From TrEMBL, chain A:
Protein name: FtsX-like permease family protein
Topology within the bilayer: Multi-pass membrane protein
Top-rank lineage group of the source organism: Bacteria
Record bears the keyword Transmembrane: yes
Length: 399, 243
């Protein structure tokens, strides 16, 4: 029977070549769409690596021609910290999570170069406000005041690219392209490592990140101070107003804007969901199109062979023998198409085309393979089942 | 087997032996084809008994229902009403699987329009009934197919495809396919319709020979001479038996 099957497939090679190419193209489309949707889906479900709930951000502006002396800023922070309902206050740079502002650069350590990574300037309390998860070492602190280098905390992915499996704590690294004679205070010393963070948007991947300790600084010439605040659960407009009043109480010229980070997240999501939903919609159409196309081609192919089915029935084949034969034929033909498709698909992770982790491509391949086999099995099984159910004389007449 | 190329006069016709127990029994068979515009009564009140070992020929004008009758006898189609018994058992009582086994082992069918699978070689086409027979290995299958093709004089054409054969050659492949399964009953729908008279004679002799060895045969033919050589001649007109 197996020999018969392969003979039949070989003798019908012209028809089958068409099927193989249809299956190949379907596979490639399903692979592309599958990989994309899996990537978005996996990112969406992955942890953010920090706790964006109950975090507010304040934008404190000095106003035109006003200065922002350090003493007054410290007083503002101290008073806000003292408000009931405020858990922790920290100073940060203006590239806050989920807003359209980034600050990136690449770093290197002994010839190992990182990808473009996010850089945040923060003070010693930032980790506590943002709920970052420490994996190694500690967040920078007062004890680092005497350090010759800039104390930094890096995310796990950045740690992996720069240091691999070697210990990272205490290591000193620098920009990917440091100037000719770089000073020690422009080099970075690792005090801690935190979990990967996804601070860009809900569908984005984790981006390597580095937090640099704000040096003992003079804020006089700042226009804006960015402050993050962790508040007690349930805090709302009342506390927001209280914070605004507190800032105004220290200095009448300064203004404050209080924003909720979780709302920033949802706002950003509305922006990113448009292309994601668009892609998903196009993907859905593609999938339906491919499924219908494959269905049509396979269905046509088998209905063309009703007379053959009738004859085989007349020669004593049972209905299930017919279904088995067609399933077998389709299995071989699909496998040829899928193997060709896989050969193309594995080039993506091998050549690193889109800078995606290989697991997404592999998942895409798996999804496309399963879908193709399901469709072809259905298309082989159902029409042959139908045809095998009618009387041989009826099927035979359709030549 | 006997020399099928011997001169026609010396070849005996089928002996008119008393028919054995009935293998096929048709009672009040009606077959109506219903299309959108027209209703065709292809068979009307057909009562027929085929005895074991008989060689029956059926004659009648074109469109009188001969092929329809043969399909029903070959379990390839169902009558609109009436009963058929195979070996004394009503056909309706057989399961799908049993019907398949009967078509495979008991009946050899030669189609009027051959019905060969164009994607299979002549040899593979002839092997087809054996493919669905449990217990027949590949080697035996091939040997029996070769032998059957040899009987119809097609040994040199085994690796051809149906598309590369003449009409008469295709007809002979269809006959070889029915023979390869060594069925108890052969139902042949104008098996010599496309053959020249010499080849037609040879095929008839082949069937006569098989009949003498015990095969029950029902043959549709337009050739009066051939029909007279069989044990019984049934004439059809407009879906009914007239003699
Ligand atoms: N599937 C069908 N649908 C409608 N009518 C049909 C169908 N098959 C056969 N018929 C009609 O049934 C009648 C008998 O057909 P059948 O093929 O049995 O004739 P026949 O005696 O074998 O003719 P011939 O000698 O030409 O082969 C014809 O009138 C034919 O038109
Ligand atoms: Mg006919």
């Amino acid at each position: 029977m197996l020999r018969h099957l392969f003979k039949l497939i070989w003798n019908r090679k012209r028809n089958n070549l068409l099927l193989v190419s249809e299956i190949f193209f379907s596979f490639v489309v399903l692979f592309a769409v599958g990989t994309m949707l899996i990537t978005f889906g996996t990112n969406f479900l992955a942890p953010h690596g920090f706790d964006y709930q109950q975090v507010w951000r304040l934008e404190i502006r000095a106003g035109q021609n006003e200065t922002m002396p350090r003493t007054e800023l410290d007083e503002v922070l101290r008073q806000v910290q003292a408000l009931p309902g405020v858990r922790q206050v920290a100073l940060a740079s203006d590239n806050m999570p989920f807003i359209f502002r980034t600050n990136t650069s690449a770093f290197s350590y002994q010839g190992r170069k990182s990808e473009q990574s996010n850089i945040y300037d923060t003070d010693d309390h930032y980790a506590q406000v943002m709920g970052l998860q420490l994996r190694e070492g500690r967040w920078f602190a007062k004890a680092d005041d005497g350090s010759h280098h800039r104390p930094v905390v890096i995310s796990q992915d950045l740690r992996q690219t720069l240091f691999g499996n070697e210990p990272a704590l205490g290591k000193i690294f620098s920009w990917a392209e440091p100037g000719p004679d770089i000073k020690p205070e422009d080099q970075f010393q690792v005090t801690g490592v935190v979990d990967n963070v996804r601070m860009e948007n809900d569908f984005g991947p984790a981006v390597p990140s580095m937090w640099i300790r704000l040096l003992p600084f003079d804020s006089t010439r700042w226009e804006t101070a960015n402050v993050v605040v962790r508040v007690a659960p349930g805090s709302g407009g009342e506390l927001q107003e209280k914070i605004a009043r507190t800032v105004a109480g220290v200095t009448r010229q300064w203004t404050t804007m209080v924003r909720v980070v979780d709302e920033d997240r949802l706002h950003k999501r509305r922006y990113t969901i448009v292309p994601v939903a668009g892609l998903a919609l196009v993907s859905l159409f593609l999938i339906v199109n491919v499924a219908l196309g494959l269905f049509g081609v396979l269905w046509y192919n088998i209905s063309q062979r009703r007379a053959e089915i009738g004859l085989r029935r007349a020669m004593g084949a049972t209905g299930s023998a017919i279904s088995r034969q067609f399933l077998g034929e389709m299995l071989v033909v699909s496998t040829l198409g899928v193997v060709l498709g896989c050969l193309l698909a594995v080039q993506f992770p091998l050549l690193g085309v889109f800078d995606l982790p290989p697991k997404f491509y592999l998942a895409g391949i798996a999804v496309a393979g399963v879908a193709v086999y399901l469709i072809t099995a259905l298309c082989a099984f159902y029409p042959s089942r139908l045809a095998a159910g009618i009387h041989p004389a009826v099927a035979l007449r359709e030549e | 087997m006997e020399n099928i190329l011997a001169p026609a006069e010396t070849r005996p016709a089928a002996p008119r032996l008393p028919a054995g127990p009935p293998v096929l029994q048709l009672r009040n068979i009606e077959k109506v084809y219903q299309t959108k515009t027209i209703e065709t009564v292809a068979l009307h009140q057909v009562n027929l008994t085929i005895g074991k070992g008989e060689f029956v020929s059926i004659m009648g004008p074109s469109g009188c229902g001969k092929s329809t009758l043969l399909s029903i006898m070959g379990l390839l189609d169902e009558p609109t009403s009436g009963e058929i018994e195979l070996d004394g058992r009503p056909v309706q009582s057989y399961s799908d699987r049993e019907l398949a086994a009967l078509r495979n082992q008991k009946i050899g069918f030669v189609f009027q329009s051959y019905h060969l699978i164009n994607d299979l070689s002549v040899l593979d086409n002839v092997e087809l009934p054996l493919l669905y027979r449990p217990g027949v290995g590949g080697k035996e299958r091939r040997e029996r197919a070769y032998a059957a093709l040899d009987k119809v004089g097609l040994s040199p054409r085994t690796s051809h495809f149906p598309g590369q054969l003449s009409g008469g050659q295709r007809q002979r492949v269809a006959i070889a396919r029915a023979l390869a399964g060594r069925p108890e009953i052969i139902l042949a729908d104008e098996p010599t319709g496309n053959l020249d008279s010499v080849m037609g004679e040879e095929i008839l002799d082949l069937l006569l020979h098989l009949n003498r060895e015990g095969t029950t045969i029902v043959m549709v033919t337009h050739d009066e001479q051939q029909a007279l050589k069989t044990q019984r001649l049934i004439r059809f007109f407009d879906g009914s038996q007239v003699s």
